[in-house]
Amino acid sequence: MARKGGPIPEPVKVAIIQALACFDTPSTVAATIKTDFGLTLSLQAIEMHDPTKRAGRRLAKRWRDIFEETRARFKEDTSAIAISHRATRLRMLDRMATAAEKRGNYPLAAKLIEQAAREVGGGFTNKVDVTNSDGSLRAPNALDEVARAARLAALAAAYNKAQDGTDAAD
To answer: Are 68 and 22 in contact (CB under 8 A)?
Structure first.
């Protein structure tokens, strides 16, 4: 049902304001309203419900309050955003990899599988393992004796080369 200049129903207004408060673009909101309510709204009509825009400067206090409350809640609570959860990201990657494979796009499927492996393996975290195999804490920059001796030998060779301009291996 297309809208012909009449007032926008209240549930539709609430949906518009909440979507705009969650940083959705007017075109995204228009598509959502068309899908959910069957109404076709202009981008200008939607922008009039955003108090952060010039077009929405005369928005009633009641609607401004809904906007501000929704925006504050949205900024604080990332748990409502599905993609912030690892399981959701893995399901999405699985669907995309399956679709890419069905279409014969094997390079894309391989990249998606690799991304999923990094996701599962903690590749997208900033965690660093600081324990030894026995569970004790590792000393910072700890090297075993063989690695330490090899490092010192390499440094000595580089120093000698710099001092006399010859290669230490000669």
So the answer is: no
75 is written with which tokens?
């900024």
- Cβ 62 vs Cβ 16: under 8 Å: no
d(CA 148, CA 49): 66
Q: Tell if the pTM clears 0.70, that is, is over it.
A: no
The DSSP string of 49-65 is T-TTSGGGTT--HHHHH
Asked if residue 78 lies in contact with residue 84, where contact means CB atoms within 8 angstroms, the answer is yes
CA 131, 134, 138 angle in degrees (round to 5)?
30
Helix (H, G, I), strand (E, B) or coil at 37: helix
- Contacts of 148 by beta carbon, 8 Å cutoff, 6+ apart: none
40, two tokens: 């076709």
Summarize pLDDT for 130-163 with one digit per residue, the tens: 677 777 766 666 556 677 777 778 888 887 887 7
> CA-CA distance, 108 to 113, in Å (whole number)?
9
